[in-house]
C-alpha cells in the first residue's frame, strides 16, 4: 500500500488541513500518516478567539522515533504551518525522510485574496519560500505566489502573467509548480501546472462557481497528492483535484451562508472513488 505523511495543523472545527487530508487521502486507498504541528479550536478564517496549541517541539521527537522503525513514505505533504520554527523542523524532517522516489509536495497555505491569514508576520512568506525550494511540487494560490516572490498581488491577470509567475516560482527551487484558483474568464476556473524539467505547461478548467468556501485549497492539495501517489501522473492528478474541488463547492452551494467555514466534501467522497475508478480504466 502506498503511504503519504502529511504535516500540518489540526483545526478541531472548520474542515481544513488534517481533517480534510486524512479522510480524502484514505478514501483514495492510500495510507495517510500525520504529524500534527498545532491544535487550534477552529481555523483562523472567520472565527474569533480561537485557541492555538503549538506542537512544534513534537516534530523532531516524532521524527527521531520514526527513524528507529525506518519508516518510509511515497510522499511528504506539508500544508499550513503555524510558526517559523515549524518550517525549520519540517525542512529537517524532509532531509531525513526524503528517499529516492519520495515526492515532496508543499502547499504553502498562508493566504488568500491578496492577504496573509491572521497570525503570520511579513517575514513568513520568505521563510515558506525556503521550504518550497526543497520541494518537487508546490501548489500555491496567486496570493501565496505573490507574497513568496515579493510581487504585488494582481486580481486581474492573463495567461502570460500566470506562466511568468510559475516560472519564477520554479526558479526559487521547486521542480514543478501548480497555481490554483486560476480564472481567465467569468465561466471557468481551474489550475495551471508548470514543469521546469521539460519547460511545459498544462492547464485544466471546470465551471467557475463564484462563491468561496474555506478549505478548498486543502481539498485540492489532498486530492492532487493522493492521485499523484496513486497514478504517478501530474496531469491526471490536476484534473481530479480540480473536478473534485468544484464538485465539493457545488454540493455546498445551497448552504453557502451557514457552511462557509468548509465544504461538505463528505457528501462527495463516493464521487472521488468513482473518479479513481474512471481514471484506472
Ligand atoms: O485552509 C488553510 C488553513 C489551515 N489551517 C488553519 C487555517 C487555514 C486557513 O485559514 O487557519 C489553522
Layout of strands and helices, then pairs:
Layout: E1 3-13, H1 18-27, E2 31-42, E3 52-54, H2 58-68, E4 75-78, H3 84-97, E5 103-106, E6 111-112, E7 115-116, H4 124-133, E8 137-138, H5 142-149, H6 159-171, E9 176-182, E10 188-195, E11 200-207, H7 216-231, H8 234-252, H9 269-280
Parallel strand pairs: 1-2, 1-4, 4-5, 5-8, 8-9
Antiparallel strand pairs: 2-3, 6-7, 9-10, 10-11
Please, could you describe this protein's structure?
This protein is α/β, with parallel strands linked by helices and 281 residues long. It has a single domain, classed as UDP-N-acetylmuramoyl-L-alanine:D-glutamate ligase. 40% of the residues lie in helices and 22% in strands. A 9-stranded mixed sheet has the order 3-2-1-4-5-8-9-10-11, sandwiched between helices. It has a two-stranded antiparallel sheet with strand order 6-7. Strand 4, helix 3 and strand 5 form a beta-alpha-beta unit. Helix 3 runs parallel beside helix 4 and helix 4 (124-133) crosses helix 5. It is globular, with a radius of gyration of 17 Å. The model has no long low-confidence stretch (mean pLDDT 97). 3-hydroxy-5-(hydroxymethyl)-2-methylisonicotinaldehyde binds at residues 9, 11, 16-17, 40, 43-45, 80, 109, 117, 215, 217-218.
Quick take:
The protein is of the alpha/beta class and 281 residues long.
Bound molecules: 3-hydroxy-5-(hydroxymethyl)-2-methylisonicotinaldehyde
Estimated radius of gyration: 17 Å
CATH architecture descriptor text: 3-Layer(aba) Sandwich
CATH topology: UDP-N-acetylmuramoyl-L-alanine:D-glutamate ligase
Amino acid at each position: 500500500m502506498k503511504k503519504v505523511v502529511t504535516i500540518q495543523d489540526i483545526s478541531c472545527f472548520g474542515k481544513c488541513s488534517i481533517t480534510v487530508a486524512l479522510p480524502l487521502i484514505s478514501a483514495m486507498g492510500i495510507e495517510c500518516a500525520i504529524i500534527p504541528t498545532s491544535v487550534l479550536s477552529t481555523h483562523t478564517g472567520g472565527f474569533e478567539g480561537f485557541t492555538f496549541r503549538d506542537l512544534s517541539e513534537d516534530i523532531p521527537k516524532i521524527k527521531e522515533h520514526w527513524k528507529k522503525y525506518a519508516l518510509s513514505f511515497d510522499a511528504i505533504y506539508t500544508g499550513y504551518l503555524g510558526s517559523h520554527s515549524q518550517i525549520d523542523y519540517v525542512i529537517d524532517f524532509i532531509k531525513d525522510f526524503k528517499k529516492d522516489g519520495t515526492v515532496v509536495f508543499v502547499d504553502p497555505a498562508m493566504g488568500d485574496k491578496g492577504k496573509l491569514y491572521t497570525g503570520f508576520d511579513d517575514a513568513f512568506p520568505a521563510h515558506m519560500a525556503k521550504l518550497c525550494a526543497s520541494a518537487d511540487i508546490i501548489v500555491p494560490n496567486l496570493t501565496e505566489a505573490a507574497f513568496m516572490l515579493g510581487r504585488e498581488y494582481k486580481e486581474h491577470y492573463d495567461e502570460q502573467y500566470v506562466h511568468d509567475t510559475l516560472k519564477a516560482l520554479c526558479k526559487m527551487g521547486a521542480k514543478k509548480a501548480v497555481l490554483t484558483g486560476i480564472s481567465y474568464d467569468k465561466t471557468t476556473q481551474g489550475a495551471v501546472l508548470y514543469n521546469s524539467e521539460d519547460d511545459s505547461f498544462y492547464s485544466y478548467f471546470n465551471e467557475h462557481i463564484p462563491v468561496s468556501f474555506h478549505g478548498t485549497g486543502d481539498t485540492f492539495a489532498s486530492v492532487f497528492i493522493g492521485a499523484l501517489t496513486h497514478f504517478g501522473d501530474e496531469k491526471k492528478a490536476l484534473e481530479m483535484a480540480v473536478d473534485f474541488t468544484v464538485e465539493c463547492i457545488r454540493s455546498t452551494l445551497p448552504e453557502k451562508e451557514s457552511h462557509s467555514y468548509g465544504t461538505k466534501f463528505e457528501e462527495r467522497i463516493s464521487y472521488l472513488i468513482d473518479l479513481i475508478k474512471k481514471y484506472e480504466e
